[in-house]
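Per your request, structure below.
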């Protein structure tokens, strides 16, 4: 199955939707990170504190599972759009594209007004080059 390739215009048209989705993802990821820390801390205290910690641990695990499910849903939405999430915290997204007859990525980061960068498939964010 060949993956979708984007023109600059097609990728740019997704930016408002991506901005909203990535902002929501970052909020869920922050919640996930918080509950992951709580689960770890409660697990460490569990040996000495018994039931009170166990209840908190179970609640944190449930919230962690909910956040995990939400993140998976967001990732599937992005995949359905045809783009590739590279980093939730940075809001980094790549769009498969063609440039000078070879497959590359158009590269966009949450907070950038438009897509101004591209990179080779194997260079990643560090290899970003300006489109113009």
């Amino acid at each position: 199955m060949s993956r979708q390739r984007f023109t600059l215009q097609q990728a740019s048209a997704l930016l408002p939707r991506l901005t909203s989705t990535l902002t929501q993802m970052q909020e869920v990821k922050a919640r996930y990170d918080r509950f992951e820390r709580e689960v770890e801390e409660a697990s460490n205290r569990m040996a000495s504190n018994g039931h009170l910690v166990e209840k908190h641990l179970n609640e944190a695990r449930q919230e962690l599972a909910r956040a995990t499910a939400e993140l998976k849903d967001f990732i599937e939405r992005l995949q359905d759009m045809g783009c590739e999430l590279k980093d939730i915290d940075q809001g980094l997204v790549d769009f498969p594209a063609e440039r000078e007859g070879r497959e590359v990525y158009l590269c966009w980061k949450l907070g950038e007004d438009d897509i101004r960068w591209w990179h080779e498939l194997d260079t990643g964010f560090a290899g970003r080059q300006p489109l113009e």
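DSSP finds three helices and five strands in the chain.

Regards,
D.
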